[in-house]
Amino acid sequence: MAEPSGMDAFAHLGSEVRAALSDQGFSTPTEPQREAIPPLAAGKNALVLAPTGTGKTETAMLPVFDALVEARNSPGDPPREGISALYITPLRALNRDMMDRLEWWGERLGVEVAVRHGDTTQYERSKQADDPPDVLITTPESLQAILTGSKMRVALESVAHVVIDEVHELAAAKRGAQLTVGLERLRRVAGPFQRVGLSATVGDPEEVGRFLVGTGKRDPDRPGDRSFETVEVAAGTRTDVRVLDPAITDADTRLAGELAVDEATASHVRTIRGIVADKESTLIFVNTRQTAEALGSRFKTLAENERDSGTDPDEVTEIELHHGSLSKDVRIDVEDRFKSGDLDGLVCTSSMELGIDVGRVDHVVQYGSPREVARLLQRVGRAGHRRDLVSEGTVVTQGGDDTLEAMAIARRAGDELVEPANIHHGSLDTVANQIVGIVMDEGEVHAREAYRTVTNAYPFDDLSEPEFQEVVRELDGNRLLWLDEETDTLEKSGGTWQYFYANLSMIPDESTYEVYDMSSRRQIGTLDEQFVVNFAGPGETFVQRGEMWRITEIDEEEERVNVTPIPDPTGEVPSWVGREIPVPKPVAEEVGKIRGEAAAALDAGSTPEAVAADLTERYPTDAETAADALSAVVDHVEAGHPVPTDDRIVIEGSARTVAVNAAFGHEVNETLARLLAALVGQRAGSSVGMDVDPYRIEFEVPHDVDPGTFREVLETTDPDRLAAYLELAVKKSDALKFTLAQVAAKFGAVKRYKEGRGRFGGDRLLAALEDTPVYDEALREVFHADLAVPETAELLEAVRDGSLAVEVARERTALGTAGRSAGTEFLVPDNADADVIDTVRERIRDDRVICFCLHCTDWRHTTKVRRVRDQPECPECGSTRIAALNPWDDETVAAVRAAEKDDEQERRTERAHRAASLVQTHGKRAVIALAARGVGPHNAARIINKLREDEDEFYRDVLRQEREYARTQSFWD
After folding, report:
1. Which domain, by its residues, includes 558?
2. Is residue 585 part of a domain?
3. Is 768 domain-assigned?
4. Of 139, 462, 665, 683, which is least packed with CB atoms within 10 Å of its CB?
């Protein structure tokens, strides 16, 4: 299609919309508007791909508004009474932004715009049902709900346009697969409608376009509304990304002490803060919420130190925090402050990838490798666009694999080598959910009609009739619908309504605890259930919103954690639910290729400096960063080891550890790891532990297993049997049991198997569901989410034909032991708790203790620990047999003095004598240990008798025991 210029694209719109454009100051269309408005104005389906902030929303909605205005003004046509257009986004926060952006257009053009999501009040919902808006902004889940309402179904009969924002986000998720069937259900109500998908970038536009419009291959008349056009504005050519691993300076040594981090991390913090200070507004993306919290707390510490030192408030670099587990009010507050210029920077996670409006962004920092090309383009694409500038970004890396990976991703981003969407094809729990949805829509429906509706959606176009029938029978057995086998009719049952409204979302149900600041009575965020169960307890400390909090109480019934703020800058970072972003195979292979080329150049006599300089010609980085990234490769080559590359696997080991160096990415390495662990474990007759990253797999093996065993298994495994081996390996895994429980809930099967049986464990659930579609789907999902079976089979075939070499190193190597930085541990080193230890030391010294003489039993004295002598003795009789007791432990004193004792008094007396023995032998150190919370004589003896280098270690052990007591107190009580 020839590119229109100037106002030509706007010429496709009517006079009212063009007048509104003039009022808004739109004189020249943006590039996506020039390309996309003509086909959209003609009513065609389209997938519009363009960087964030280039006017994609207006690109899609201006033709929609124009069509609504034209329909209203058409003489003789009856006015449309229902909803004419749906604008669907994956986030409620995006709904809020879209409402802000579209409301002006609606008011100017006389078009009513409303928003509908889970937080919409019942009053607003009733109002929308009685008087539907022209345009409804909603989420995939809310569409599920409104399709079943009697009044809303009538309103939906008028839908002529559906716009799906951030379509790439939905394409890779089950909620997106659910949405595709929801759109087919909508089509049964409204007839064919225009479909428009918006995204910054996707790797395979053709497949995402099919995801958007469906196939319709089972429509009886095969209408021609399934075609689409792709309008793509290249993102890679509009980005300028540099990869930087900062050198450590003298200033970083001082900063490391100030922040209680190592010098390398101090250099990262300094560099990022310097970039923020040089720019007007910077987004700092990180890959996990743990990193966001830890990094945010360091920035807050520096800002507070500046304020305390008298720095002009306008000169303080203000950086705040934004991620999905902060409360809605907190998120909105920081968004507004960033947009208004009160904040210089925002540390954020993927929550900021999806176009939430925070105003103009000058620059984007990515901390650590972004892991994927699509993620880098999505994030850096947020910068510079409002002035039609190239989007600028800096990736601050941590050396080694992290830097090489970032370099490969930055190069691939420039060449638009984006990863394909990982669409959930044939997810059976989604099929089950949507069959119930169709029955809810229509009361009763013929099974063939339901099958046709589901399979017209692209993710399910290959679903076979027998598979569909098995799902229906499972739903019938679980009483979620009735199947009339004589007529093949599906009807509502007593459980249909309750199930459907409890399962509007395909996102797995996982409990979250609300976190409340008891000093202000304000919610500050949430913690996931796994964190609360595994870590949280009264007295524990953690970081959230970049600040330190101490847990005072956990209310299990209300799922609430009450906390108080503390000034301590260290502590545990919340262990959020969420898997690591997987590094794709092509990215990891490019890292392997870089290693191989560097090794070949070094072997040919080139210097490390020359090799690094050569890299800067091909990758967007500097020579110092490249040299640091290659240091492990240089050491590896100098030691004479074979280098693991994109066409060589190197296996090494020592003692009970074997490492398989394989540069093939997370999913292939996970697949290899499960295969090798299962087959080697079978040979050894013992379990094999494993740990996976994109470049190596570490195994913990029995003493008689060596690297040669792994090489033999790799060279002899039949690629055609890979899937069968993996199913056997996965069958015993916690991952399958966890997934099976979630899938079973979506099938309504858990309740059926729990009835009358109490708690129903993973093993019993697995046995009960093994020959059902529930098990099939759980297995498919584990394979889909974590494994890469076809790619790994190709790899095994390459080993067999010799195109992929497998070699054994004689010892552990530089590359084999390098590994990537583990999560956020680099932000909280082991010795970063000096302030915590000082606090514990001072607290215990100020605690009160009863000193009680067991020799004469007359002397009893309550005092602070700090006032107890190094070797306590009784002032009455001179004995050193002094028990140190808690200040409220008068019952033990009474028990010791009692002439006749019951069992409880005997236990108390024995406990007092053990405490006195400790004090007599170890003096005041025993008094300190016994004064700690929940320690007791037995644990105090263990703490005292441990060999240590310094006193801080003694207090660390005291603190660990206090935490253990806090965690288990309710059990013992």
Report:
1. 520-565
2. no
3. yes
4. 462
